[in-house]
Amino acid sequence: MPTILSGLIAGVAIGLLAAWVYLLFWKARYTSIIRADAVQRSQAVTAGKVHEQLIPYLPSFPYNPKDVRFLGSPIDLVVFDGLAEGQVRRVVFVEVKTRRDLENAPPPQASVHTRKQNKLGKLAQSYLRSKRLREQPCRFDVVAVVVNDEGGVTAIRHIPNAFSVAAW
């Protein structure tokens, strides 16, 4: 009986040791995958923020850079179309989306889902009210910035009236 018990204890100990070693290897591998993903996401967010700041100054941006105000998050840009000429024609809320490829990806406006559209609509309404521009015509555009692997801008695609929000 003592040899069976000692064999059982040794088997359980070896099993626990093997499980512990497996857990350590799994944790190390999983941690490196998570870290690599976090670095990649962080680089993508940083690139997106840089493009939001630079896009008004690129030649193919459809508005006068003097008409643009950077708000940050969650509204990327507000364009007071015509401000530089002295007559604001409309207020345009611009969502900037950075993409590596437009052909094999969903359209940029598809990434502005309904929940975000509603949030942007409420924020835009509040912004217009705070600036006493409630009666000013407005719309929501999406500007897609296409970049190469090095982060250089290869194209800009402007989608006017990309989405509309419920009546205010």
Ordered list of secondary-structure elements with their pairings:
Blueprint: H1 2-54, E1 68-70, E2 77-81, E3 90-99, H2 114-130, E4 138-147, E5 153-163
Parallel strand pairs: 3-4
Antiparallel strand pairs: 1-2, 2-3, 4-5
What is the CA-atom radius of gyration, in angstroms? 26 Å
CATH topology: Trna Endonuclease, Chain: A, domain 1
pLDDT < 50 runs, ≥5 residues:
none
What is the element string, with H for helices and E for strands?
HEEEHEE
For the termini, the CA-CA separation is 82 Å
Biggest β-sheet: strands ordered side by side in the sheet: 1-2-3-4-5
Mean pLDDT: 87
Overview of this protein structure:
The protein is α+β, with helices and mostly antiparallel strands and 168 residues long. It has a single domain (1-168), classed as Trna Endonuclease, Chain: A, domain 1, CATH 3.40.1350. Helices cover 42% and strands 23% of the residues. The chain has 2 helices and 5 strands, in the order αβββαββ. A 5-stranded mixed β-sheet has the order 1-2-3-4-5. Helix 2 (114-130) links the parallel strand 3 (90-99) and strand 4 (138-147). The model has no long low-confidence stretch (mean pLDDT 87).
